[in-house]
Amino acid sequence: MQQITALELADWLADDARPSPMLLDVRENWEFETCRIDGSVQIPMNTIPARIDDLDEDAAIVCICHHGARSLQVAAFLERNGFGKMINLTGGIHAWALQVDSTMAKY
């Protein structure tokens, strides 16, 4: 599994020459409603096992949570289940709000 910083992810998303990764937000509904990175798909952590077939195991997937711990667990779970391009957003959405989008709500 790879790790990516908020600034590295922002650069990747802004680079039209690179295919964008799937942004998998594993936070709860109220967290996702509070703030999110545009284009993110929300699947709460506790529903991942039941929805694993909704994900493309060949796609680059960046897992996102509040600070990076839950997303790390989900990325590791998916990797153990055959997903080969798992990336964890270190620092989570909080790091994104601090380093990339200062207008984003923080909690």
Automatic annotation (TrEMBL):
Alphabetized UniProt keyword annotations: Transferase
Protein name, as recorded: Sulfurtransferase
Domain Rhodanese, residue spans: 17-105
PROSITE patterns in the cross-refs: RHODANESE_3
Any one GO molecular-function label of the UniProt entry: transferase activity
InterPro entries assigned: GlpE_sulfurtransferase, Rhodanese-like_dom, Rhodanese-like_dom_sf
Keyword Coiled coil attached: no
Gene3D superfamilies listed in its UniProt record: Rhodanese-like domain
